Amino acid sequence: MLIYEWDFDKNEVVQWERRGECNQCGDCCRVCVKYNKPSEDINVQEATANGNYHGICNQVQVDGKDNYFWDVRIDNNDKDFQPCEDLKGNSCFSHNGTREVLCRYFPMSPRNAELFEQCSYRFEKIESWEID
To answer: Using CA atoms, how far apart are residues 67 and 73, in angstroms rounded to an integer?
Structure first.
């Protein structure tokens, strides 16, 4: 899976390749992962041309389709958060079926994965460049 991490604050794009398989440790299912998903017609190319965007956007390419996740973050202060209802022990009941789109693609960069000691995903940096 190829992932582009657009950092508008650093004016940089990093292309990552996520390697490995989920070992179903369940760590990311026990935290509150939040993100902003704008309408489908806003993408990083338009954001770059606009020049008004800040933060990080993860662009995930799967089967020729781009998926955009803006400002992915862990929110440990969400008092209403409950661990995923599909998680039983360390096993996800929807792991091989109808997982939410964020669950299929998370973690999206080393920045996300480093928060979870047991995570089996590894990332290889393919290249990076400045945002035009």
So the answer is: 17
In a domain, 109, yes or no: yes
E-state strands within the chain:
2-7, 12-19, 33-36, 56-62, 65-74, 87-88, 91-92, 122-130
- State how far the Cα of 106 lies from the Cα of 84, in Å rounded to an integer: 14
List, for residues 73-95, the tens digit of each pLDDT value.
888 777 888 777 778 777 777 76
Residue 69 and residue 60 in contact, taking contact as beta carbons nearer than 8 Å: yes
Range of the domain at 99: 2-121
Q: In the chain, which ranges are continuous DSSP H helix?
A: 44-50, 101-105, 110-113
- pTM of the prediction? 0.80
In a domain, 130, yes or no: no
> What digits encode the pLDDT tens for the residues 94-109?
766 677 778 888 899 9
Total number of domains in the chain: 1
Judge whether 20 and 123 are in contact, CB under 8 Å: no
In a domain, 131, yes or no: no
128 domain-assigned: no
